[in-house]
Amino acid sequence: MSGTYLGMPAFPAAAHEAVRDRTLRGNLRHATHTIRAKRAKAVAEVSDWAALREAGRQIKDHTLRHLDRYLVQLEESVTAAGGVVHWAADADEANRIVAELVRATGESEVVKVKSMATQEIGLNEALEAEGIRAYETDLAELIVQLGKDRPSHILVPAIHRNRGEIRDIFRSEMAEWGRPAPEGLTDTPAELAEAARLHLREKFLRAKVGISGANFMVAETGTLVVVESEGNGRMCVTLPETLISVVGIEKIVPTWRDLEVFLQTLPRSSTAERMNPYTSTWTGTTDEDGPNTFHLVLLDNGRTDTLADQVGRQALRCIRCSACLNVCPVYERAGGHAYGSVYPGPIGAILSPQLRGTQSEIDASLPYASSLCGACYEVCPVAIDIPEVLVHLRERVVQGGPVTRGGNKVVLRPAKGHAAERAAMRASRWAFGHPGVLRTGQRLASRSRRFLPRTLPGPGRAWSASRDLPQVPAEPFRDWWQRTRGGKDGGDGK
Amino acid sequence: MRVALFLTCVNDTLYPDTGRAVVKLLTRLGVEVDFPMAQTCCGQAHYNTGYRHEAEPLAVKFSDVFRDYEAIVTPSGSCGAMVRELYPRMGERARAEGRGDALAATLAPVVPKTYELTEFLVDVLGVTDVGAYYPHKVTYHPTCHGLRGLGLGDRPRRLLQAVKGLELAELPGAEECCGFGGTFALKNSDVSAAMGVDKVRNAESTGAEVLCAADNSCLMHIGGTMARLRVGMRPVHIAEILASTEEEPLA
């Protein structure tokens, strides 16, 4: 699966294929179930998990409430430490800034550490158009890039691939991007890791420009933090002469002390580790150590619009741990690509329609890509009530209403394609408002029950294609009640 | 004690046996049951599909019908969670939209008095052995809204374990959603059906004759999937098992 996210079909159509792909289903099931069980164990070890979760929620909410103040403080701290801060309102502006910064160095190659923000804005494609080649250095991102694929998971972007598929990708694609895969490469993890290591070392040692994201930005010192497992990110942020970090504005925490909470909750929620193997922090520039030029591009791209929404803003608490993906039964069957965004799974279903708006077919369908089972909310380490936001966004899709887009208040019209449903909801509300009408309908169904079809026409086919219909009973409960108890202590039938 | 039975529109229309079982069970336990005929639907389908403004009048109606009862008992974790979790939220939203406290005040009285059936039995009546007899191997599926919305915990299991003759088989992946999800079952029918098949296969692996749950809508989805897959199992609502006795066994 390649190409951009634009023009993605609605979620049900995208999921239709994935549900039938046995290899994909197997890969996802194995991976999510393994990490799900490990995460539960890692979380159970912490006696004050509930308190940590609440602390994380509060720190994020406080920061978001005073985001303007902390962003200014961050800019001052970064500048004082020798860095340069750039503000990007949207994807185009961010891509333009980064491309200009790279061009100013005279380089045509950059190494990248896995960054969701740069995936979100399509930076690699934008750089490609400027004649600059970006090499992904996170192992999973490398697999995705070599496979001309798209990431399908926040933490494990190549989760949809198994070892055999990865070996084939390495064998056929590595040579085109740099050092080829070793002769006779097998699918053992050690051999695959070594092939990636040799391939990537060349890139690290040659690159003059590194591009990174960040998990956190500490306002008080202007420090950026990357949390990772491989150490490739650390190479990216220390070896090149120029470092450009592209980070969403919501990634701020006020102080170093606040990090304490997230450095406990993030690894356990994401990789089920007590502590992640590499935590790298960088603050501006330092003589003779690390990059001598540092740029921070602060990305909005729909975030302040999201912040303006009272219910939906909690999505900005997300620390990208991916625990919600790993427990989500819908993600497990549909796979990450069906979400049409760099942010898949439950968090993607509430984040993408807020960052991008609900106008496109895919974005209007995402709030419905959930059975509202609540498992995502239960595992979220910053207590984002994802089901609540999903329902809130469903309302936005079907009923329209006031939203903020591009900093302006606009009133959305209801999305197209819901007219029949809206009519049905209104009609059923009216019928439910009149018990007599409901009762007539029930009796009609009871009396004609022998003639009711086994398969339904129209939208009902979505049910009867895979499930039998229940038998309509001979007598609805309320008729039985009135027949047997009505005269005695039954209600008044009002 | 006199309680109102809130049967939910799905139970009333498609699963009247569940309602009869609740009446039989509660009466046997000495509870006086009333069924206010003016009740219809709690509005959950409307609310969860994004039609909050269609759901609001139904919530108001629910409150009008039930507010004067001591307790409201419903054999549905999902509709129970609608009243307890989401009615207060509807009130808060109305307030946030500048519509004042009227809706919140209207809905508030019914919220704490609404109990899911197993919750009512264990917490209010204080019984786990309800004197039931059901000589079958049963596996229990905790439906999502009962499990996570109401936090029913092990109450249904404790009730089932106390049933004479009943052998309880642990369901693998019990806490995973069956894939019903209201209009989700229609809007994302492929994913919904795939989830349903996995749930049924897990249930089948227990060797149980019966899959039991506390929500007929989930059972409708699971049972419909079982029928299509021609699995030798049947879905039964927990109320029917708890109502079953040696003198009057469940048919």
From TrEMBL, chain A:
Domain LUD: 73-298
Name listed for the protein in its UniProt record: LutB/LldF family L-lactate oxidation iron-sulfur protein
PROSITE patterns xrefs: 4FE4S_FER_1 (PS00198)
All copies of domain 4Fe-4S ferredoxin-type, residue ranges: 315-384
Domain Lactate utilization protein B C-terminal: 393-483
InterPro entries according to UniProt: 4Fe4S_Fe-S-bd, 4Fe4S_Fe_S_CS, FTHF_cligase-like_sf, Helical_ferredxn, LUD_dom, LutB/LldF, LutB_C, NagB/RpiA_transferase-like
Superkingdom of origin organism: Bacteria
UniProt feature, compositional bias: Basic and acidic residues: 476-494
Organism field: Streptomyces cynarae
The keyword RNA-binding is assigned to this record: no
Region of interest called Disordered, as start-end residue ranges on this chain: 453-494
Keyword tags: 4Fe-4S, Electron transport, Iron, Iron-sulfur, Metal-binding, Repeat, Transport
UniProtKB/TrEMBL annotation, chain B:
Record domain Cysteine-rich: where: 3-83, 138-222
Annotated InterPro entries: Cys_rich_dom
Pfam families: CCG
Signal peptide: none
Protein name per its UniProtKB record: (Fe-S)-binding protein
Species per Swiss-Prot/TrEMBL record: Streptomyces cynarae
Taxonomic path: Bacteria, Bacillati, Actinomycetota, Actinomycetes, Kitasatosporales
